[in-house]
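Is this the right way to post structure tokens for a design question? Let me know if I should format differently. Anyway, here goes:
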């Protein structure tokens, strides 16, 4: 009969050993994101668009406002890849230049809206009670307002320029981020590490900024990623209506608006700007979906 104190065999001792090393949270998220073909492909396409917007206009032999009336309404060719408009301006160069404006508005609007939404939602969730109820009723009122109404009012008072477009886009873009951060803070503020911070004498602002908001960073990044395509589409829509970016500046929405009178004779003038908007929107939405799946701990495989 074997002794009950005999050493365990090596094969049994190592049976429950964890063979795969533990990876940090962000490295696991990147691995999951990279395995999503749509998300990774969208990121590649977006990187190409950003590089083309930065480098393309500098390498082009034309400028975005260079006119040649004798060369107007040309079909796509080797000298003009996307043809020319009625003033003889190279459409391809204007699309690359418009990418700078459209992407800049999307990124800046996302950053501003995220900062507002994180602070607003974090304060509402941490304060709770009447403060939370009042702050969220304000959010409900803003959601109920027609976006086109206050956009037109902003344009009337501030004029049709990039600053007014940013204000109009940011006016409501922060609301979804605020609601996401609020829900995260409500679920985290009674955790043990928050109670420990209170016992150590930390004030509410320190707990919110050092403990609660950093632990809600995953859903916040996902919400921010979805603001970018929304802002780009909003700017393109406003410019298409003629109340957004104005000439001589060229955003994708402005290019589509200028091509409307020539849609029958030269349909390529509206096809290429709309195609640029569509490809960018698809890429950004695929990236947002991939980030949501990669950063959500409930979806880990």
């Amino acid at each position: 009969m074997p002794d009950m104190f005999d050493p365990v065999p090596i094969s049994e001792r190592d049976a429950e050993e964890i063979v795969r090393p533990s990876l940090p949270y962000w490295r696991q998220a990147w691995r999951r994101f990279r395995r999503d073909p749509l998300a990774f492909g969208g990121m590649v396409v977006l990187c190409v668009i950003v590089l083309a917007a930065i480098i393309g206009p500098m390498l082009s032999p034309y400028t975005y406002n260079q006119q040649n009336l004798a060369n107007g309404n040309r079909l796509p060719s080797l000298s003009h890849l996307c043809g020319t408009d009625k003033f003889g301006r190279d459409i391809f160069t204007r699309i690359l230049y418009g990418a700078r404006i459209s992407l800049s508005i999307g990124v800046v609007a996302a950053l501003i809206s995220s900062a507002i939404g994180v602070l607003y939602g974090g304060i509402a969730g941490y304060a709770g009670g009447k403060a939370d109820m009042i702050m969220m009723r304000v959010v409900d009122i803003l959601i109920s307002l027609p976006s086109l109404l206050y956009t037109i009012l902003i344009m009337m008072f501030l004029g049709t320029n990039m600053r007014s477009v940013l204000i109009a886009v940011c006016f409501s873009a922060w609301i979804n981020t605020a609601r996401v951060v609020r829900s995260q803070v409500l679920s985290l503020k009674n955790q043990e590490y928050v109670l420990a911070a209170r016992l150590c004498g930390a004030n509410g602002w320190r707990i919110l900024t050092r403990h609660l908001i950093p632990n809600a960073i995953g859903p916040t990044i996902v919400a921010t990623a979805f603001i970018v395509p929304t802002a780009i589409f909003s700017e393109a829509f406003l410019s298409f209506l003629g109340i957004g970016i104005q000439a001589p500046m060229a955003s994708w929405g402005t290019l589509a608006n200028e091509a409307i009178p020539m849609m029958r004779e030269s349909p390529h003038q509206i096809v290429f700007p709309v195609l640029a908007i569509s490809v960018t929107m698809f890429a950004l939405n695929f990236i947002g979906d991939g980030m949501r799946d990669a950063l959500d701990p409930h979806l880990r495989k």
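Format looks fine. Someone answered above. Worth noting: The two ends are 45 Å apart (CA to CA). The chain has a mean pLDDT of 82.
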